[in-house]
What does this fold into?
Amino acid sequence: MNVHSVEQVQKLTVIAPATGQIIAEIAETPIHEVPLFYQRGRNAFAAWSSISIPERLNYFRKLKQLMVDEMDQIARTISDDTGKVLTEAIVADIMPTLDAIDHIIRHAEKVLSRQKAKTPFLLIGKKSYIEYMPRGIVLVISPWNYPLQLAMVPMVSALAGGNTVILKPSEVTPLVGKCIEDLFNRSGFPEGTVQVAHGGKEVGAAFTEGKPDYIFFTGSVRTGKIIQQQAARDLIPTTLELGGKDPMIVFKDANLERAAKAAAWGAFTNSGQVCMSAERLYVERSILEEFLELLKSEVRTLTQGTDENADVGSMTFPAQKDIVKGQLEEALARGAKLETGLEPENWQEGMFIPLTVVTQVEQDMKIIQEETFGPLLPVVPFDTEEEAVILANGTVFGLNASVWTKDKEKARRVASKLVSGAVVINDVIITVANHGLPFGGTKESGIGRYHAEGGLRIFCHEKAIMEDLGLMNSEIQWYPYKGKYPLFLNLFKNYFGENRNWLSFARDYLALIKSK
Ligand code: NAD
It folds into this structure.
């Protein structure tokens, strides 16, 4: 590995991708310590799960304030570790994390408290509730592209419900993993409640095999499938937040200036390393040339670098650069045309990739079918609404999508037809910023949802409780059955029939009570 290499002494060497400088060394968690982590997590669970939700939330308030106080340092750590520009570190990694903590502080008690449920009339005399019982130890495994948010949001969501948490952050961004560990420690969370294990896929696999009570994984489809197989062996429930290939559909009646700016931002923010990047741009044929000109002039204004005013940072992970290169090479070899950017042979050394817009691509090219995770945007014309929907739905992914038109009806119609975990109308990516909305993918983009109410409840067993005062000595459906069949037959035929007769119901019900 050239960015963060695992050495014999089991240290992760952290090299800032944007500058190539070694900036830290972080000790890897030895595999033989995995059972110790689980032991500490289980010991801590007893106390953490038995304190009230408001008591737990007091720790969250301390954590939030600490992050507010140290926001600039955290942003600089994220930027050093990933190569992303400071503005993106604060806007797209720190802000969503703080907003999620804030949302959980405001809603967790209501969402996770005992909920009343309706009791059917036939179960006269009983009351029904749902309780949310913590599962135990939640293993969070996170990626490198938004290393703060994608680790901390599932962590705090699981902690709110009374679980203890083990985080295995990406080995590609271990400095942020260390920063998260430090933030939780200094917020005073009780020992063993939050633990962070450092290392790569071997460490991740060892923790997955350690029988956690829930696995929350964010990362590639490939790793997601491996984790799901292990989880299936031990019947461990999972949430998998995986890759994307998000389409952006621009109709001729859209605000083209806004759409062109959005396409540039949606494709190139975080250097395209966003699971919800705009990775395919479908433009109505009659405005293709006009739109391309707007897009190209927007792209030409963007600056790449590491200083505070740069627009686009570097790639984070060297292997990802090779994937982007391979996709572009295949497209160019098959006749695609570069509208902006350079042929890969002219790319400079280092981790910056030219911002690339490509036309004349085919639906079966890798650039259209596979996740790119880099600053590469293919543009494809379409003629009809139906064709746009078919093209947009034509990959194995379905995370997010956007539809651009001033026609509200058309926008909503198209949004409903997209097989996607989320759709944005006249904007890109932004659904993820509303913590009140569920987040997750369809098809190979993942299994399950988080954020919103469900995002707290997934980490708990949903326990059904029914309550009877226990005053009657028997129930009508209990033994003996003698003479009950015709009475039940009458009762149910009448009750479920279209013309229910309440007098007959009362007569049959009383007869059943008498025959108990
Ligand atoms: P990755 O799958 O390579 O690694 C993710 C994490 O899994 C890392 O911590 C890694 O160490 C760990 N890991 C790897 N192999 C493992 C194994 N066998 N067992 C246990 N853990 C293992 O993904 P990445 O390259 O870090 O992240 C990029 C991918 O994540 C992209 O595909 C992107 O689309 C996806 N992603 C999805 C979302 C989402 O919310 N849907 C968000 C961000 C990123």
Observations:
- The chain is about 40% helix and 15% strand.
- The two ends are 74 Å apart (CA to CA).
- Confidence is low (pLDDT under 50) at residues 1-7.
